[in-house]
Amino acid sequence: MKEHPELNLHFSISCTSRAPRGTEQNGVEYFFLTPEEFKQKIANGEFLEYEEVYKDRFYGTLKSQVEDQIERGENVVFDVDVKGGCNIKQFYGDRAMSIFVQPPSIEELRRRLNGRGTDLPEVIEQRLAKANYELSFAPKFDRIVVNDDLETAKQETHKLLISFLNNR
Predict the structure, then answer these.
(1) pTM (predicted TM-score)
(2) SS3 71
(3) Model pLDDT for residues 96-132, shown as the tens digit of each residue
(4) So what CATH class is 98-167?
(5) Biggest alpha carbon–alpha carbon distance for the chain
(6) Range(s) of the chain covered by CATH 3.40.50.300
(7) The CATH number of domain 1-96, selected from 3.20.20.70, 3.40.50.300, 3.10.560.10, 1.10.760.10
(8) What is the side-by-side strand order in the sheet with 30-32?
(9) Residue 125: what are its φ and ψ, rounded to 5°?
(10) CA 59 to chain centre
């Protein structure tokens, strides 16, 4: 996004019910809510998408936050899971483009995760199982970018964004 300021791309700022970590600031990295506040906003229908990843540990995107960004002329980018991506696309329809970024294969993803050396084998297996599940959602997205080579994937994504922004 920093490489292409002419596209005016800005990440959405999600909400979470977890406590801030380190130097995180409310309204910068996340909007920090209590679980009760989060649940009330769910009940009020204020989220484009949300997920409870653990008991009382929520993440989600407020409709009002995204609408504020759009009103400022920003092109909003979401980094969400597949269900969130589908919900956002359903809400915005043709005003949004969904891109599914996938590994070249599960085997390659396994090789990359093992190569990092940061996760235990059981964590890698959990991540691979989730990736396998998420791959089943790929056909629901407008475009699919295979992240075989990072630079190529970035160039392809850039072309897709330019085309979408010029034709809406």
Answers:
(1) 0.85
(2) helix
(3) 999 999 999 999 999 999 999 888 999 999 999 999 9
(4) alpha beta
(5) 45
(6) 1-96, 98-167
(7) 3.40.50.300
(8) 30-32, 14-16, 57-62, 47-54
(9) -65, -40
(10) 11
